[in-house]
Structure formats: structure tokens, C-alpha cells
Amino acid sequence: MSSVRAMLVDDHTVLREGLRRSLESAGLSVVADVGDGEEALEAAARAQPNVVLMDISLPGQDGIEVTRQLARQLPGTAVVVLTMFADEATVKAAFAAGAVGYLVKDCSTAEILSALREAARAGPGRRADCTRSFLRASTRAANRLGPDHSLTQREVEVLEALANGASTTQLARQLYVSPKTVKNHLNHIYSKLGAQSRTQAVAKALRLGIVRIA
Fold it and tell me: Could you give the count of Cα atoms lying within 13 Å of 77 in the half-sphere of its Cβ?
């Protein structure tokens, strides 16, 4: 039997069904899948999952509030957020509510599986360590970019500033360069990370542990 008893919470039925098939084919046990916040709390109480894959945009109570309530009501259940949002405020709110992992919906199925297994494996007493492991730099994860795609120190500084809410203009003043230079840095970063926007670049950098939120 799988040590992962997962519950999926997302208001898109097709996405839930696809995720369920992918997780179960990889050997994980999916004990429930639901589409709104209130239903998630009821289903979790019945099914007792040890890990929940949680969207943020939900009918009724949003995923942040559901995560907060699950942390109080079922402390043995870990929450990994899977969402379209990668802004600083949302990431901070998710972890403050009790999430132990944060993924953006451009991630791979392999990354979801890894996050769920790690979250389930870390018992309640180790959840703080699990949370830090998602946030701090990981040499192994960074190495997946490959030597030909390594970011320069200045590019890491640019990404870290963006992750912490700086605008292009603010960043240019902070680095004593022109906005055009900042945009050139961003173009290089997008190319190296395979990103199409600053949101995607920040999300990937957070997921890989290249940058941290202050």
C-alpha cells in the first residue's frame, strides 16, 4: 500500500480527474477529490488524508483559509499548494496558513509526485523542516538547470528582488543601472529558465530554491 493518502482540491473537474489518474498510476492512493473549500473540509474529516494538493481559487472558502482550518483540525495532514499564482503575498499567505509546499501549475507531474511524497513522509513533528526544504536553496534542484543554463550572481539578485516585490524601475535604482539593463537581465533569465514571463521565472526560481522570499 502507498504511504501517501492524498486528497485533491481543485474546482476544475478535468484537471482533478487527470491528476487523479496520474497519481494513482504512479502508485499513490487518492482518497478523495473535491471542487470547493467547504467540501474539502468535510471530505478531509471523512477520508483522513495525510497530504492534500490544494488549489487557492475555490468556490466558497479559498484554499488559504481551507489550509488554515486543516492545520488546526487535522494537524497530521500536510498541505501542498498547487496554483496559478506565484506572487510574494500569496506564497507568504500559503505558508503562514500552514502549507508545507508550494507549486505553480506549470510544474511537471514528477514535481507534484515528489512534493506529495516528501510532505507525506515528513510527519507532523517534521513539517517545519519540510517547509524550510521547499524554501531554501537546493543544490540538487539547481543542478537540473545544467551548467549551460546557470544564472549569474547578478541574475539571481534580479530574480530575488522581483520575488520580493520590486518593480523594474525600483530594481534599476537599487542596482544603479538603467531599466533597459534590467530588461536585458530578465531576457537572459527567461532564456535560461525556459520562462515566458517574470511570474513564471520567479515561480520556477522559488521552486528550485534559487531565490528566497524575505
Answer: 29
- The domain ranges of the chain are 5-135, 143-208
Contact (Cβ atoms closer than 8 angstroms) between residue 122 and residue 100:
yes
State pTM to two decimals.
0.63
Q: Name the architecture of domain 5-135.
A: 3-Layer(aba) Sandwich (3.40)
Residue 145 burial (CB count, 10 A):
16
Secondary structure of residue 101 in the 3-state scheme: strand
**143-208 CATH, one of 1.10.10.10, 2.40.160.20, 3.40.250.10, 1.10.1740.10:** 1.10.10.10
pLDDT tens digits for the chain (214 residues)?
Answer: 468 999 999 999 999 999 999 999 999 999 999 999 999 999 999 999 999 999 998 988 899 999 999 999 999 999 999 988 766 678 888 888 999 888 887 778 888 998 899 888 876 555 555 555 454 433 333 344 443 446 787 888 888 888 888 888 888 888 878 888 888 888 888 888 888 888 788 887 777 777 777 6
- What is the rounded CA–CA span in Å between residue 85 and residue 103? 9
Please tell me the distance from the alpha carbon of residue 111 to that of residue 113, in angstroms, as a whole number.
5
